[in-house]
Design a protein that fits this description.
heterodimer; A: 369 residues; mainly alpha; two-stranded antiparallel sheet; B: alpha/beta; globular
Amino acid sequence: MSTPTVARTVPRARRFSVGAVLDRFGIALALVILMTMLAILSPEYFLTRENLTNVAARIAFIALLSLGEFLVILTAGIDLSVGAVMGLSVIMLAWSSHRLYEWYAGWYYAGAGMAASLPPPEGPVILTTISVLAIAATLGVGFLCGLLNGWGFTKLRLPHPFIMTLGMLNIARGVAFLISGGSPITGLPKAIRVFGAGNIRLFQFADGEWFKIPVSFVVILVFYFVFWVFLTHTQTGRHIYAVGGNPQSALYAGVDVNRILNRVYMLAGLLAGVAGIMYAGRINSGTPKAARGGDELDAIAAVIIGGASFFGGRGTVVGTFIGVLILAFIRNGLNLLNVSVFWQEVAIGAIIITAAFVDVLRLRTGRRE
Amino acid sequence: MEPLVRMEKISKSFGPVRALCQVDLALHRCEILGLVGDNGAGKSTLMKVLTGVYQPDEGEIYFNGQRVRFDSPYDSRNAGIEMVYQDLALAGNLHIAGNIFLGRELTKKYLGGLIRFLDHKGMAWEAARLLERLKIEIQSVDLKVETLSGGQRQAVAVGRSMGFNARAVIMDEPTAALAVREVAKVLDLIKSLKEHDVSVILISHRMQDIFEVSDRIMVLRQGQKVGDLVCSQTTMDEVVALITGAQGEALQAVTEVA
């Protein structure tokens, strides 16, 4: 009996080549180069605590939208609605906390029968309860939008997630304007604001100033870590990559492809809801401007710059985070250098195209046909 | 002895098209059955009925002597019937171990079973052992499948199908996309499956492959079984004639032999 051996031409060398190293660490390298350039070009301001903290606080909602968008793109899909769903969540958060407060006040006056001139007591218990309920409602709305996106694709069998999520973009934006009547709902309980605007004081510098980290930055680090674990160490995460790599093979292997897709869109919706909480907390207001749109495109840009493939199945959570940082630092750096915002858009456009082209090259060289 | 798989009088229509008409099939233990027929003869449909992708309009399936009903590939797989698809059905972006364990990943429980994480090490170890058992030589199970050659991918696909108590493996054109020098290796691999107490149904257009590895050959034409021959007692010419229908009168004689 002859020994069945299959060709042993495993391309080992490539694993340690320059190309492989660039493939793996190229994006991180790009970020380092970008930061070095900005540090040189804007020596007196770029690397200051103030500027870096500012960037860290600003990226929160885009980082969360990008994380959701990354999951969707990993399955070779796209979610155009995350920006609008975030906008709807912003409105939902402000609107529901105001309504909840009104209900509480109404109940207080009716029940107690006290002099209507006295404001109802605002103990921490009351405000925290209102905050928790409002946050739950907000996350619920995000989740629901994601659920519908998934259903539109898997149950209604709409041709491409582009269609369903484009529809959802308009619906979410419309509902956000309907609820708010087009004007901002200002004022949020402190327990909500802390997520978007709070700072954690870590230690005091010699000059007496505090080293502060925005709460929102800690929140996104936690989310990115959790999703890194989710994608690399759980069965569902593995299946998300499999569905993106080859849905047919995943199906044959007994993976419930539609369930995976549904989960991915649900998570993207839920993360848009979380992004809404950051956004509203940061500006202490529920503004329908948040639903105007455009943020989903930034999220897609960050994911692509971060090295994820539009063809699905390729990309990492860390890469996406770096993509978010690159996008943020380009905007920030060009602002510092007084470059017109219009040129910034041109630069970002060129970078997106370059990143996608790198992906095409990578696929062409890394894969055998 | 009761065959491992017995399909009786299977019929299946798609609208007005009669894809299968009263087809019988028997697959014995440790046997390689060559399944041949022209395009559209019903080979794939018959195998999809066997694996539960399609439900037959008529007919019964027995596995290990028990009447079975497969509502999905998931059911047939649990019973021990595996299919290796023509397009290989591997996810190129996952590594070898990931593909072998796709859909049945090993996990470890944490926090008293609240959370289950993938057992990366366990899967790599098991996958390497499986390839070793099948004498498939690939340096590392960490390699992404898309970096492998066609033959290596085929080996991984076969390895995957063998991995989990498979009793019968169906292979759809396993050599169609391979370089010539890789074909022999895959054929050897198919033959070696017998040693692992696995029966094989081999679908192929390459008559020389069929004749090299099969014990028996079953011929389908226009949805009907037109031949069931012992490989050593027939010739390529005879089989080709049955496939094309050039030998109408031989049909009778052949079915009687079988």
